[in-house]
Amino acid sequence: MKQTVLLLLASSLSLSLWTGCQPQTTADKPTATPGKPGSGPNERAAVPSQPRPQVPASKLPKGAVKGDFDGDGTTEYVWLVAPEVVDEMECKGECTSYLRFSKALFPAITRENCIGGVPTNLGDLNGDGSDEIGLLPDWFTSCWMNYFVYTYRAGQWQPLVEPFATHCNQWEAEAKPIEIDPSKKGFVLVRYTDMDDTTFAVKTKSVPVL
């Protein structure tokens, strides 16, 4: 019996050598590692998505405001997208507006409790080579509204100064809301409205940029 088994094994080995076939092990098979894209034989390396181009001038919304908001020497545009107002005191959804930009890399600026407004190019207020943006939000009632100033820094929009209170009287008088303080480096002059008893007074103070 042992001789018969040995003869069969020898015959099988001879046949394998004659045909050139060798047993395949699991190490010869390409395998994919679950949860790791690109490890399988048919996987392709991920290609980073390219940033979208700027919105062409022909497709800019009416009233878009131009400026160089990141200091790269090129012109960008900003405009406000307001919520849909369905009643005298009600929005369809949240009463939130957004400042959007022609440059795709700029994130939108979200402004809650705002149903409109026009962004303003305030020029370079902090000396970093880029223009700042001002916004007076519109609301259903009240002439009292905070004024917001934004600057682009480290890839995001940040406040240049703390929001400050303004009143309709200030805007009707065309008082400039903010400008560089020529006497102090890194400071700006803000004009805000203060109420003394029943009188609205426009006041000026010097504050450091944030």
TrEMBL record:
Residue segments, region Disordered: 24-68
Organism: Hymenobacter glaciei
Signal sequence coordinates: 1-23
Classification via InterPro entries: Integrin_alpha_N
PROSITE patterns, sorted: PROKAR_LIPOPROTEIN
Superkingdom of the source species: Bacteria
Protein name as it appears in the record: Lipoprotein
SUPFAM superfamilies: Integrin alpha N-terminal domain
Alphabetically ordered keywords of this record: Signal
